[in-house]
Amino acid sequence: MSNCIFCRIIAGEIPAVKIYEDDLVLAFLDISPINFGHTLVIPKEHHESSSTIPEATAGRMFRVGSRIGIALKRKFDYDAFNLHLADGTAAGQVVMHAHLHVVPRGVEDGFRWNWRQLKYGEGEMQEFAEKLSAKLAADLAGESGK
Ligand code: 5GP
Ligand code: ZN
């Protein structure tokens, strides 16, 4: 897509500091990192949502992302890493070309996810699970027929 900033990086029209590239994915440094070394792993094909990325490419993204996380730990003074993917604007996706964030983490890096912990009411968890698993099964069955 010509108006997509990440497609333009893949095409070499916009510069990026590359970490890794193969036939399916490209990894490059995030321009505004949470910690230095924060890397983005993207499919070379344009996909807005993670849900449409072919399985081989999605698997490669996860594999490359986690190996970059390990390399960040081994080479720099990091203790851990987060893999993060925002799918949709309400989830915080700003660039509408799916991307996996690899965020290197230190015990005292001063960054915290604002992670709340709600509680289900009586029976709500089971009800939620039944509806969700039925919808997932129907969707997956529909897709396998395509
Ligand atoms: P999102 O919020 O969509 O999950 O994350 C988009 C990420 O892309 C942000 O962390 C932002 O810093 C990064 N980003 C946006 N534009 C560019 C760019 O032109 N080059 C690079 N290297 N990173 C970018
Ligand atoms: Zn794109």
Task: Draw up the topology in text.
Blueprint: H1 5-10, E1 18-21, E2 25-29, E3 39-43, H2 55-75, E4 80-84, E5 100-105, H3 124-144
Antiparallel strand pairs: 1-2, 2-3, 3-5, 4-5
CATH architecture of the largest domain: 2-Layer Sandwich
* Strand segment tally: 5
Q: Which stretches are poorly predicted, pLDDT < 50 over at least 5 residues?
A: none
Radius of gyration over alpha carbons? Answer: 18 Å
SSE order, one letter for each helix or strand: HEEEHEEH
CATH homology superfamily name of the largest domain: HIT-like
Number of helices: 3
Helix-residue proportion: 25-40%
Largest beta-sheet details = 5 strands, antiparallel
Under CATH, the topology of the largest domain can be stated as: HIT family, subunit A
Percentage of residues in strands: 15-25%
Average of the residue pLDDT scores: 96
Ligand set: guanosine-5'-monophosphate, zinc ion
The CATH class of the largest domain is identified as Alpha Beta
Distance N to C terminus: 25 Å
What is the spatial order of strands in the main beta sheet? 1-2-3-5-4
Tally the structural domains.
2
The secondary-structure class comes to alpha+beta
